[in-house]
Amino acid sequence: MINIPPHIIKGCLENDRRCQQELFAKTSNFMFGVILRYVKDESYAYDIMQEAFVKVYTKLYTYDSNKAAVTTWMHSIAVRSALNHLRKKHNYFLDIDDSGAPATPTVGNLGLEGLEAEHILKLITQLPEIQRTIFNMNVLEGYSHGEISELLDMPEATSRSYLSRAKSTLRNKIESMPFKMKRS
Amino acid sequence: MTKERKIINEKLRSIDHKLPVDALWSRLEKELPPKKKRRVLNFWMWSFTLFGIILLGGIWFKTSHKLSLKETTSLTSISESNSFLGQDHSEANLVTTQEEANKQEYTESLISKKDIQISSSSDLSSISSNINSKRFVKPLNEESKPTENRKLKNNEGGEATFRREKAYINIEKEDFHTPENISPQISQEKMALLNRYLIDPKMEEGNAKEKSAGMNLIISALPSPISPLLLTSDSKVLLASPEYTEVPLLAISPVPQMSKWSVAVGGSYGINLDNISPYRKKQKDIFSQSEETSNYQHLDVWNTSISLGYDVSKRFGLELGVGFQRLTDKSTKIEQAADSFSSLDQDRGYKASSSLGIYSIYDTYESVYISIAGNYKIPLARSLFLKPSLGVSYNLWSKYPSEASPIANNAGFILNEDLNASTFADVGFSNNKVSLFSELSVGYIISDHVDINVGIGYRMSTNFINLNEEYQRDISSLSLLGAVRYHF
Fold first, then answer.
1. Which 3 state secondary structure label does DSSP give B338?
2. Residue A166: which of A99, A86, A110 has the closest Cα?
3. Using CB atoms, which residue from B11, B35, B425 is nearest to A17?
4. CB under 8 Å to B284, separation ≥6 — which residues?
């Protein structure tokens, strides 16, 4: 749990460089981790993180401390920055039509929670980009398919379809992993 | 599901990516907007400079249209001279200088011009009403001013210089009474006081001794309907000149007939002045993908208020008010191949992929505020004054209803560069808490209790939070304003 003292938020609102640096030092690792779930290439992830932090500092006045923790708010900015990047990079979100998607298995079936953090991240980043994006949004961030559909500008059925493919891919990879990696 | 998600997320968060934090920070810092220093101070400095210019302009206006006290003193003293010189010009051994001759000529011409009635009666004479028509004559030019000092010879052949001291005698409303013949007459006490200055036996010719004598007479509180008066006593003009620029002071409270306390109801209509505001925002370049686009952006500021006024002195007053303000921010775009566009505050807009469309955003912002202002009254003429004022207001309550009307297909809101898409912005930074306003109005006194003000006002609103420039929204507006004030 990252603890951000109120005086740092206040300092950032006043454009205080020391507070901004402190916030960066405390949260950059976490922000980078969120972005890395969506973007495999670390150099891109650095760029996106920078863009996300600029948004954090310049839009901090919109943050309402009564609604959520500042890290939750920053998390959403990291996700949206990554999505923006993907949207600019590809336009595939608009071109998909998989209305006949199979039913989605639950995440519990995957057994991801039993793996080590590095292995989870590695498995996720190995997914194809669109599958990875939808998997992250649905399974890790908790977005509904309706929300994903709205954010990525695609039909809900398409979102379900890609999630299903992502889980199927992950299940296959997990099953092919050595036993000790699964148990750790 | 939630529990598993939590476990996975916690595991992912626990990964140490071994980031080069310092290097990344250095790179990020270059991208951050520079810290704006002394913003608030600049805001105040700018506004006070504006107020100062208005004030200095008013003072200049006044002084350039003023018959100075010096002139008035001379006028009075010359009239005085007229009286005792007039007793026997031929045998007077009073030696006047050329300047004094000029004074006499000057006075006579002035009196002639103004139709001022000089009475030889020992009683107060009636008021000459025909001065009314010549109330606003131009002041005399500098060259025609007589000097203050005059020299008299005494019986021993010596010479004494009389230097005029400033003896301000305020003749106020209570000093008058109106007998049956309607002519207002000055009270005996005040007349005695005037006579002490005007009829000084030691100033008679032959008795000239070193002595201060003379006066500056200020009629400061004559009620407007009877103020164009000329008082005479023993052939001495006390004061009559409509050019006497202190006379308009009588029109300004606190005068006997006007209470220091007053209430006013006013209103104003203003237009956006962002284009000349020192804190105007640069237009975001979000129209880059639009073609053949025409934009119309306009901000109206409506204001109405009621205030309680208190005149601390003749010139300086304070006003405490409560008001209602409504801003309407209207943005319209007619486009082809539109990508996006924003409202005037540039924090709201559409994202669209349509090829042709007309879009509009109509934001309204309403607030109830309290304000305190100081004003300074500069007399321009009788019953007419200039009133620069400076004040600050604070929003007690605000509301930000908005509506947008997409006409084209596939239009949707964009906000904060895709953040919180499809939603309206929180009022947030647009909700400026503090406004600084300066006003310059001309007031006219209609009666003993009522005056009206019309003028222009400049208002700047800010929230005094040190936001980055891109997101700071200071609203500045130029308004036409009007008010009616009732003195208790």
1. coil
2. A110
3. B35
4. B342, B346, B470
Lowest mean pLDDT among B174-183, B218-227, B245-254, B287-296: B245-254
Please report the DSSP string for B444-462 in residue order. Answer: EE-SSSEEEEEEEEEEEEE
- Specify whether the CB–CB gap between B214 and B73 falls below 8 A: yes
Instruction: Pull the structure tokens for residue B237.
Output: 């003009």
pTM comes to: 0.38
From CA A90, how far away is CA A117, in angstroms rounded?
A: 28
Residues 133..172 of A with a Cβ closer than 8 Å to B: which?
139-140, 142, 150-151
Q: Which residue has the tokens 């030691």?
A: B202
* Residue A109 contacts B where some CB pair is shorter than 8 Å: no
Of B299, B351, B333, B324, residue with least CA distance to B473: B299
Q: At what angle do helices A70-89 and A42-58 cross, to 10 degrees?
A: 130
Write out pLDDT tens, residues B160-199. 554 443 344 455 555 555 444 444 455 566 666 555 544 3
**What pLDDT does B322 receive?**
94
Of B406, B291, B396, the closest CA to residue B348 belongs to B406
Contact status of A58 with chain B (Cβ, < 8 Å): yes
Residues of A in contact with B33 (CB under 8 A): 15, 58
Query: B478, exposed or middle or buried, with CB in 10 Å at 0-12, 13-18, 19+?
Result: middle
CB contact under 8 A, B28 and A54: yes
Q: Report residue B204: phi and psi, to 5°.
A: -65, 155
H or E element, residue A21: helix A17-38
Measured at the CA of B460, the angle between CA B431 and CA B417, to 5 degrees, comes to: 45
Cα B180–Cα B184–Cα B189 angle in degrees, nearest 5: 110
ipTM over 0.90: no
CA–CA dist B86, B353 (Å, integer):
95
Hey, are the CB atoms on A15 and B466 less than 8 Å from each other?
yes
Note whether A16 contacts B35, CB cutoff 8 Å: yes
A71 has a chain B CB within 8 A of its CB:
no
In which order are the strands placed within the sheet that holds B349-352?
A: B340-342, B349-352, B411-414
- Are B384 and B324 in contact, with CB atoms under 8 Å apart? no
**For B28, which residue in chain A has the nearest alpha carbon?**
A50
Q: Which are the contacts of B184, defined by CB distance < 8 A and separation ≥ 6?
A: B127, B176, B177, B178, B226, B229
Block residue for tokens 């002639």: B112
**pLDDT tens, position by position, B360-405:** 566 677 888 999 999 988 777 657 788 899 999 888 877 765 554 4
SS3 of B70, please? helix
List, for residues B248-260, the tens digit of each pLDDT value: 233 333 343 467 8
pLDDT confidence of residue B225: 35
